[in-house]
Design brief:
The complex is a heterodimer of chains A (about 290) and B (about 450). Chain A is mainly α and about 290 residues long. Chain A has one domain: MetI-like (MetI-like fold, Orthogonal Bundle), CATH 1.10.3720. Chain A is built from 12 helices and 2 strands; from the N terminus they run αββααααααααααα. Chain A has a two-stranded antiparallel sheet with strand order 1-2. In chain A, β1 and β2 form a beta hairpin. In chain A, α2 packs across α12. The two termini of chain A are about 30 Å apart. In chain B, the strands form 2 sheets. Chain B has a 5-stranded mixed sheet with strand order 2-1-3-10-4. A 5-stranded mixed sheet of chain B has the order 7-6-8-5-9, sandwiched between helices. Chain B has about 450 residues and is α/β, with parallel strands linked by helices.
């Protein structure tokens, strides 16, 4: 016989949910709704003349070859940032998970960069890689590399990818470390007794058991690369040289904040929102199947 | 015993500090009470130190010079941030009374009828008089309607000039007192600098302002149709003319043979000259103070000269245009008009800025242009220019040749965005991804789209 739990009170559950719903509505649904509404308007900077234009903003953006180029840039940028933010974090977490001296110190130091604001992180990288004043930049030039990211699109891309990924390594490290520590030691010991090498243990035991963490971080990092990186790009390259480091979110920022073109900016953010919703759905639909909880 | 004594001393000290603090607080309160009786006028500016401090001092001097009005000057980030935050404040209904806006924001502000109070209207309603005929035409014209009505209050104006490193010239066997006058001489001088082992003979700050906007005025050709947009919002860019293409080709060729280095967008090139890495730079006249302070060898090592030109172009060299910023009067928000008292205070502050002694002091303190003839005459009467050779180069460059429709200024909507587009396209040319002709054709096409968008959003 099945025992069912029923709340006799009809209001209490909703009352308990209310704070969470209020926050979600206030900070997610309302702004998203506003963005959709704004994307259908055309207005001057001061908001003195507002005109409803249906989908003209969208049509204009999708016709713009530079917008299509930004999509390509974003794909390259986001996948590179995601991989470069996750792989080293996993490696560091594996190292830190072993019995080592001063493990806590290492952990603290690795977590530090996460506290650095994006713009400040970008300035740090600027001071290292600037061709004239940067230590690494000057070293590269002395070694005969034609290093000038102000004029070399690939170098500029590399720089913004590294700076963006570096900032996220700490966050991933924390989660990977927690994931590793939740793997039962007995399973690893059993594998060792069976004669599995460190490499085999990692790929057959640790990595599959880490998959929930990895999957969660994949979603988070893709979202980070899509939405949270415009500050770094703005401080390092301003999208240049040419438009080689203009990503979708950077264009949203520039069109809305610098160019005061709110309609175009809102339309782009609506497109971006749709893309990320679709991407997350795909991740949950296909990749999550391979995840063992 | 010792402990007791020191405890007593400590208590006494604390009491003393506390009472001093109290007195100070009372004094501050008294000042505040006095200030509160004054009409408060908020003024947002976009000048970093030391310039911002000098500007705030002017506001403080004005507030102290009369009993009725108090100007509260605050720094709100660089020009673009100040522009964005004041517009956001207007939309939220708490805009500052006065905002300092860079010159390329002029068209955006002029189109915002209802948000701004034009200076000529402000002066008419308050009955305060400012003699704009005494202003340097290029300065006044940039912020006035074609019919002469002044829209904003000109203040800090600069122009592009050439700075060069005299030591580098000496090492290259060039005359350190004779800067290149034409682009042909530029090619010779930079080749000599390169031959003498200089890694970066020439760079430019503000690539679009220096090499396209000023270049057009200097050669008396239009940057855009409709008198550079002064005539109306239907202007189209004209920077893919043969002369502009020729100039970008020159720069690309020089970049290829390493006599020119692209130093980056906006003011990024400044650092290359300040560090001594580059021997020649085209930069804002407002860069002078930094150059004198930072270039190795100091003031004696920095030469200033007018911008070079192509001497086979008829009409060159003509006068250049200005950059810098002006002061705009804003209403509080949609439907929130300023009171008569507030307008009066703003107008009197502007009249104070126009005084020859105030304008002259600003010029000599900062290196910005003297905006009125009276201020220029006042400085000429002193021995400032003899003690500071080169400080008058920008003024002379502004007054050379004739004032034409190509030198009156630019009035293009969304100009900051257009500048970025031009920079993006010329960067692609420097990378060899497209020819100079393609770069400028693309810049014109994309720039015109931006202009049409502005026209669309601001019609009616």
């Amino acid at each position: 016989m099945q025992k069912r739990v029923i709340f006799p009170n009809k209001i209490l559950p909703y009352a308990l949910l209310a704070p969470q719903i209020a926050i979600t509505v206030l900070f997610f649904f309302l702004p998203a709704g506003q963005a959709i509404w704004q994307s259908l308007l055309m207005q001057d900077a001061f908001g003195l003349r507002v005109e409803f234009v249906w989908f003209e903003n969208f049509a204009r953006i999708l016709k713009d070859p530079n917008y299509l180029a930004a999509i390509k840039t974003t794909v390259v940028f986001s996948s590179a940032v995601t991989v470069l933010a996750m792989a080293p974090a996993l490696l560091l977490a594996l190292m830190a998970d072993r019995q080592i001296r001063a493990a806590d110190t290492f952990k603290t130091l690795i977590v530090w960069p996460y506290a650095v604001a994006p713009a400040v992180a970008a300035v740090l990288w600027l001071f290292m890689f600037h061709p004239s004043i940067g230590v690494v930049g000057q070293l590269l030039i002395q070694m005969g590399v034609k290093w000038n990211y102000a004029l070399d699109g690939n170098q500029a891309m590399l720089l913004v990818i590294l700076a963006s990924a570096w900032k996220q390594v700490s966050y991933n490290f924390l989660f990977f470390l927690a994931g590793l520590q939740s793997i039962p030691k007995s399973i690893l010991e059993a594998a060792s007794i069976d004669g599995a090498s460190a490499r085999t243990r990692f790929w057959t035991v640790i990595f599959p058991l880490l998959s929930p963490t990895t999957f969660f971080l994949l979603v988070v990092n893709v979202v980070y690369a899509f939405f949270d990186t415009f500050g770094t790009i703005d401080a390092l390259t301003k999208g240049g040289p040419g438009t080689s480091t203009v990503t979708l979110i950077y264009r949203v920022y520039v069109d809305g904040n610098n160019n005061l073109n709110f309609g175009a900016s809102a339309a782009q953010s609506v497109i971006l929102m749709a893309v990320v919703i679709a991407l997350t759905a795909v991740q949950f639909r296909y990749i999550e199947r391979k995840v063992h909880y | 015993m010792i402990f007791r004594r020191s405890l007593f001393a400590a208590t006494a000290a604390v009491a003393l500090i506390a009472s001093a603090g109290l007195a100070q607080a009372q004094q501050a309160q008294a000042q505040q009470a006095q200030a509160q009786q004054k009409v408060q006028i908020d003024f947002w500016h976009g000048l970093t130190q030391p310039l911002g401090g000098l500007l705030e001092q002017i506001a403080a001097d004005f507030s102290a010079s009369q009993p009725r009005f108090q100007i509260n000057a605050t720094f709100r980030g660089a020009y673009p941030e100040t522009m964005v935050s004041s517009i956001a404040a207007f939309r939220a209904g708490n805009a500052p009374h006065i905002v300092q806006m860079f010159e390329v924001g002029t068209a955006t502000m002029m189109a915002a009828r209802g948000a701004i109070i034009p200076v000529h209207e402000l002066l008419r309603t308050t009955g305060v008089a400012i003699d704009f005929n005494d202003y340097i035409p290029a300065v006044r014209g940039y912020y006035a309607l074609p019919n002469g009505n002044q829209m904003s209050m000109p203040f800090n104006s600069s122009t592009t000039i050439m700075f060069y490193n005299k030591d580098a010239f000496r090492k290259a066997g060039l005359n350190p007192e004779q800067a290149p006058r034409t682009w042909a001489e530029m090619r010779q001088a930079t080749a000599a600098l390169k031959a003498s082992g200089h890694a970066c003979p020439f760079t430019t700050a503000w690539p679009t302002w220096a090499q396209f906007e000023q270049f057009s005025a200097l050669h008396n050709v239009p940057l855009a149709s409709a008198q550079n947009g002064m005539e109306g919002m239907n202007a189209e860019l004209r920077i893919n003319s043969p002369l502009h293409v020729r100039h970008l080709t020159t720069l690309v060729d020089m970049a290829k043979d390493n006599t020119f280095r692209y130093g980056g967008r906006d003011g990024a090139g400044d650092a290359l000259f300040a560090s001594g890495e580059c021997a020649i730079i085209h930069a804002s006249s407002g860069f002078r103070a930094r150059a004198l302070r930072e270039v190795p060898g100091g003031a004696a090592n920095v030469g200033a000269a007018m911008l070079p030109f192509y001497d086979d172009v008829a009409g060159a060299p003509n006068q250049t245009i200005i950059g810098g910023a002006s002061f705009w009067v804003l209403n509080g928000g949609p439907g929130r008009v300023r009171s008569a008292d507030e307008q009066r205070g703003i107008a009197e502050f502007f009249a104070y800025l126009a005084r020859p002694e105030v304008a002259a002091k600003w010029h000599t303190d900062t290196g910005f242009l003297p905006v009125t003839r009276a201020a220029f005459a006042r400085v000429q009467a002193t021995d400032f220019y003899r003690q500071n050779p080169g400080a008058d180069v920008p003024v002379q460059q502004m007054l050379r040749g004739a004032s034409t429709e190509n030198t009156r200024g630019l009035r293009l909507g969304n100009m900051p965005e257009i500048r970025v587009v031009i920079q993006e396209e010329i960067e692609r040319a420097f990378q060899g991804q497209q020819t100079p002709q393609q770069a400028l054709d693309n810049a014109v096409r994309r720039g015109n789209e931006i202009l049409r968008n502005f026209e669309r959003a601001n019609r009616s």
